[in-house]
């Protein structure tokens, strides 16, 4: 009689749960959990690669001295990659663990971090767009100041920065190579970083476009692709936030009725 009573009680509880959370909801919850895990596993792996690359560049600065990039620029790039890799790695790990273990706290923390990153990106985009003229003017001013200090023994940062820009972007001067003629040391020839072979040349053989002109043309020509890239990242973040929010709600609802199965 006791067994019969327990059996009937279990059957009624099972029917109650099935009526509350139907099979479609359960399938959707499990499907979203898998999608969230796969998505964040990709981010976790990418974060590990970025972090590893940053660490490699940082510890191999002396071995990369043959590149047309200054030591300070490589060091800054390494630190940036390490920071970016850490953020992506941690966020991806939280998403993976939260979806795999179905831990509500991890999912909430993951949702919070992604939301903060998303809001920060929006704030940065608005700030850059609202102050683009001021930013452009400031960049031009700093480049001119660095041209004035170029080659001085106590101004290695400016010298390295300009050499890197001119070598990598294949540009010369601010607007045109002749800008260097305003400085006494370069009235006859531009700096070596203005030359295709990184050797001494005259103005006729130097890169024809100025660095500001090159950057301006690049931004204008590639702005559509940059916008699509930023939009793609924002959409992925929104998808991750939505999936984490839905999965956490599903887990809370399921846990609410799990006692009835005992």
What does it look like?
The chain is elongated. Helix content is 74%, strand content 0%. The longest helix is centred in the C-terminal third of the chain and has 47 residues, at 211-257. Mean pLDDT is 81; it is low at 1-14. It is built from 7 helices and no strands. The protein is mostly helical.
Task: Summarize the structure in short.
This protein has helices at residues 2-20, 23-59, 71-101, 104-130, 132-149, 156-169, 211-257. The chain is mostly helical and 262 residues long.
Write the layout of secondary structure elements.
Elements: H1 2-20, H2 23-59, H3 71-101, H4 104-130, H5 132-149, H6 156-169, H7 211-257
Task: Label this structure with key terms.
mainly alpha, single chain, 262 residues
Radius of gyration: 29 Å
Provide the low-confidence segments as ranges: 1-14
Count the DSSP helices.
Answer: 7
What are the secondary-structure elements, in order, as H or E? HHHHHHH
Oligomer: single chain
Structural class: mainly alpha
Query: What is the residue-averaged pLDDT?
Result: 81
What is the tally of beta strands?
A: 0
Sheet of most strands: none
How much of the sequence is in beta strands?
Answer: under 5%
Overall, the morphology is elongated
User: Helical proportion?
Assistant: over 70%
Alpha-carbon distance between the two ends: 19 Å
């Amino acid at each position: 009689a006791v067994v019969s009573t327990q059996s009937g009680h279990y059957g009624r509880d099972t029917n109650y749960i099935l009526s509350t959370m139907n099979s479609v909801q359960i399938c959707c919850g499990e499907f979203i959990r898998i999608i969230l895990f796969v998505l964040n596993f990709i981010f976790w792996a990418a974060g590990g690669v970025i972090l590893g690359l940053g660490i490699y560049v940082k510890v191999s600065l002396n071995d990369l001295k043959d590149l047309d990039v200054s030591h300070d620029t490589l060091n800054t790039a390494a630190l940036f990659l390490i920071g970016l890799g850490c953020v992506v790695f941690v966020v991806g790990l939280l998403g993976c663990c939260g979806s795999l273990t179905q831990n509500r706290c991890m999912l909430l923390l993951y949702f919070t971090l992604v939301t903060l990153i998303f809001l920060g990106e929006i704030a940065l985009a608005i700030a850059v767009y609202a102050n683009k003229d001021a930013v452009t003017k400031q960049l031009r001013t700093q480049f001119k100041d660095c041209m004035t200090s170029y080659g001085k023994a106590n101004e290695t940062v400016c010298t390295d920065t300009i050499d890197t820009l001119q070598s990598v972007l294949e540009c010369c001067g601010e607007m045109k190579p002749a800008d260097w003629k305003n400085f006494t040391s370069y009235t006859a020839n531009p700096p070596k970083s203005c030359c295709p072979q990184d050797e001494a040349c005259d103005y006729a053989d130097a890169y024809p476009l100025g660095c500001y002109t090159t950057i301006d043309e690049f931004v204008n020509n590639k702005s559509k692709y940059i916008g699509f890239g930023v939009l793609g990242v924002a959409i992925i973040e929104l998808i991750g936030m939505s999936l984490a929010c839905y999965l956490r709600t599903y887990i809370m609802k399921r846990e609410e009725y799990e006692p009835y199965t005992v």
